[in-house]
Amino acid sequence: MRIRILGSGAGGGFPQWNCNCANCRAVRAGAAGYSPRTQSSLAVSANGADWLLLNASPDLRAQIAAAPELSPCPDDGVRASPIKAVALTNGDVDHVAGLLNLREAQPFSLYAAGRVLEALGANPIFTILQTQLVPRIELRMDRTIAVTGAGLDLGLSIRAFPVPGKIALYLENANAPDFGTSAGDTLGLEIVETRTGQSFFYIPGCAKVDAPLAARLKGASLVFFDGTLFHENEMIEQGLLGKTGSRMGHINMSGDDGSIAAFAPLDVTRKIYVHINNSNPTLNEFSQERAAIQSAGWEIGADGMEVTL
Ligand code: MLT
Ligand code: MN
Ligand code: ZN
Known about the structure:
- The chain is of the alpha/beta class.
- It has one domain (2-308): Ribonuclease Z/Hydroxyacylglutathione hydrolase-like (Metallo-beta-lactamase, Chain A), CATH 3.60.15.10.
- Helix content is 16%, strand content 23%.
- The chain has helices at residues 22-28, 60-66, 93-96, 114-121, 211-217, 234-237, 259-263, 288-295; strands spanning 2-7, 41-45, 51-54, 83-87, 109-112, 136-138, 144-149, 152-162, 187-193, 199-203, 222-226, 270-274, 298-300, 306-308.
- The strands form 2 sheets. The protein has a 7-stranded mixed beta sheet.
- Strand 5 (109-112), helix 4 (114-121) and strand 6 (136-138) form a beta-alpha-beta unit.
- The chain is globular, with a radius of gyration of 18 Å.
- Bound molecules: D-malate (MLT), manganese (II) ion and zinc ion.
- Zinc ion binds at residues 16, 19, 21, 23-24, 278-279.
């Protein structure tokens, strides 16, 4: 199974268009130790020819252009795409806006939680993906579903499960408990290769590693995990946004309740941070925070990075 990180950045990417924080200034200037990152998405394939996208970011057009496998082969028909399916972890803008890049009457399957399908269904702009060509398939919790698309079996299956998180920002209800969040607003996905039974986890948004999630991840061979912020208060301290990591529905890397501490007893073979926000000090390769996550056995995902399982 081949896994490619299409985009390792969080919403806004790195640099973010309107951001002048120290990291964004440095990457814009081409400073040593900083690499640009597009927004949050992975691509997976069992056979190297047919691909499942995990999230569809606003940068999808550029991500396809940067990955030759995702463009039509010269011998294909006049309309063709190796992208046969897309699975979503939530309804956030950075994970769904790229669906609009996949218009042009091309068949593929779209997998998401019922709550996210409802949000897409309530927005007429997504009718540009006609349901006869792009069936919308509900991911039911803790069921294994075989991935098919454009009449093909991709040799992969998805097991979706709820993780602690938050409703999409644009759906928040200030007057409801927890902003109106309910189960299924944020998913983790386990992607299983049918032939070998090998699997990995993709969890780009997660507010907390609670006991059920820890039990599920124990001994996993590969996890791509929420690396949004290093410190709970980094956005506030840098004057970027008056929100903590917890308020945004993201666990932090550091601290007693952070992801480094939570994963320490889990014996995960390979742990890769994705969905890294432009404020995160680990984006500087030479920072002490980068050294700290590396010594805890974590890698920082990068655009174009490939893992074979
Ligand atoms: C997030 O990951 O918290 C969201 O992408 C925020 C947003 O939609 O701007
Ligand atoms: Mn996001
Ligand atoms: Zn910035």
